[in-house]
Amino acid sequence: RPTAMMFRNLAAMDVEEALRGTPLDGVVLMVGCDKTTPALLMGAASVDIPAIVVTGGPMLNGKWRGQDIGSGTSLWQLSEDRKA
User: What's the pLDDT score for residue 53?
Assistant: First the structure.
């Protein structure tokens, strides 16, 4: 299973390449969770252009069929259940 850090680094490289390929004087980064925030900041820092971060706040857990679910944990659990 891929680690969260691998996805973060991949996203940072994606942001860096997108910003390098576009002639911009600055960028507004819209982030939404603990994975995208550092990824976008790392990408913008690598390009060395001014950046403003706008966050959507924390991603809260939800309920499904009476059970608490989270975004990442439940996804991997569902994937393992489907394989079995």
Answer: 93
Q: What pTM did the predictor assign?
A: 0.64
Question: Domain limits of the chain?
Answer: 4-83
Phi, psi of 52 (to 5 degrees): -115, 135
Average pLDDT per run of 10 along the chain, which is 84 residues long? 85 95 93 86 93 85 81 75 81
| 15 CB-contact burial (10 Å; exposed 0-12 / middle 13-18 / buried 19+) | buried
Q: Please enumerate in sequence order all residues whose Cβ is within 8 A of that of 63, keeping only pairs 6 or more positions apart, or say none.
A: 69
Cβ(11)–Cβ(36) below 8 Å:
yes
